Amino acid sequence: MIHFQNVTKSYNGHNALSDVEFHIDPKEFVSIVGKSGAGKSTIIKLLIGEEKPTKGRVMFGDYEVNKLRPSELYLLRRHIGIIFQDFKLLARKNAYENVAFALEVAGRQQREIDDLVHEVLDLVGLSDKLKNFPHELSGGEKQRVAIARAMVNKPEVLIADEPTGNLDPINTWGVVNLLTRINELGTTVILATHNKEIINELGRRVISLEDGRVIRDDKKGRYILA
């Protein structure tokens, strides 16, 4: 499904990634770990076509991502949902409107929008918060809205980029458990994090990065970086 083939990415002569090679199958739950600057964010940018590799190929299904023109990137990104550490919610829209916005931009019909938004807000446990604005929600609830927004188009892959970085331990585990449930429902999940406790508790596949290189790829891994 996803294949990085000997990928190197350089910025001003410095390699953010060096000869990175890995393959992710459909319905996998994969954590990408490493310290700040190890290359986690660069991998995500390459996967969604925000950056192009200096060398190598990035494949997503039948798409060779690095060869897509800017006008073609929407074809790729409709298969991918992304959540971030800082939620990126629209402050003047309530939970329902934040999730619905992605569908409105895509030109969906209002009845379909209503059905899909209620479905994903129920999935993340926020059916009773659909009229609440971001400032009325806790950090964990904001991240759940962000997850609902990422899932509303039913993507094949959900990328979670440090999704618990701004959350307390209770909300952290609420989000992790939700990601696990989404994976069990059939969505491929890619979790980029430096949270050792989460990785060790999950017991899923772990790709470990150090200085832009893959140093380990364990089917049931632990966070072993110093």
Automatic annotation (TrEMBL):
Residue intervals of the ABC transporter domain? 2-225
Q: Is Cell inner membrane found in the keyword set?
A: no
**Could you provide one GO biological process annotation from this protein's UniProt record?**
cell division
**Membrane as a keyword?**
yes
Q: How does it sit in the membrane?
A: Peripheral membrane protein
Q: Which Gene3D superfamilies match?
A: P-loop containing nucleotide triphosphate hydrolases
Keywords, A to Z, come to: ATP-binding, Cell cycle, Cell division, Cell membrane, Membrane, Nucleotide-binding
Its main subcellular localisation, reduced to a broad class, is membrane
Protein localization: Cell membrane
- What InterPro entries does the entry give? AAA+_ATPase, ABC_transporter-like_ATP-bd, ABC_transporter-like_CS, ABC_transpr_LolD-like, Cell_div_FtsE, P-loop_NTPase
What domain of life?
A: Bacteria
Q: Which GO terms describe its molecular function?
A: ATP binding; ATP hydrolysis activity; transmembrane transporter activity
PROSITE patterns referenced in this protein's UniProt entry, alphabetically: ABC_TRANSPORTER_1 (PS00211), ABC_TRANSPORTER_2 (PS50893)
- Pfam families (alphabetical): ABC_tran
Q: How does it assemble?
A: Homodimer. Forms a membrane-associated complex with FtsX.
- Family, per entry: Belongs to the ABC transporter superfamily.
PANTHER family per the record?
CELL DIVISION ATP-BINDING PROTEIN FTSE (PTHR24220:SF470), IMPORT ATP-BINDING PROTEIN (PTHR24220)
Function (record text): Part of the ABC transporter FtsEX involved in cellular division.
Q: What is the protein named?
A: Cell division ATP-binding protein FtsE
